[in-house]
Recover the amino acids of this structure.
């Protein structure tokens, strides 16, 4: 198994010197995940994934791609997240209604 870093958009592979190569055979094969993450930090790589190549060449049917770095923001802003979780919590935690005042 080979562990290589691939750019998610261009599908280029990270080389040992921090450059990018189109041919996966020129990619640096990392001994473990930790060293791949360290190389990405050292070279300022963003928008990449760790590709675990199971066979002699990359194959979408068998290889595993793991995202590296910060997760992508899939929601527009924190207000949307708060609204979504508040809505969900309405079902999980009953609201306490104030006692009716007697006049």
């Amino acid at each position: 198994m080979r562990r290589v870093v691939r750019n998610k958009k261009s599908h280029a592979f990270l080389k040992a010197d921090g450059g990018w190569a189109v041919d996966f055979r020129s990619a640096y094969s990392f001994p473990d995940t930790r060293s791949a993450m360290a190389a990405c930090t050292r070279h300022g790589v963003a928008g990449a994934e760790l590709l675990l190549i199971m066979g002699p060449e990359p194959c979408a049917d068998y290889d595993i791609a793991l995202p590296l770095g910060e997760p992508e923001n899939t929601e527009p802003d924190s207000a949307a997240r708060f609204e979504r979780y508040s809505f969900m919590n309405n079902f999980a935690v009953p609201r306490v209604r104030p006692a009716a005042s007697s006049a």
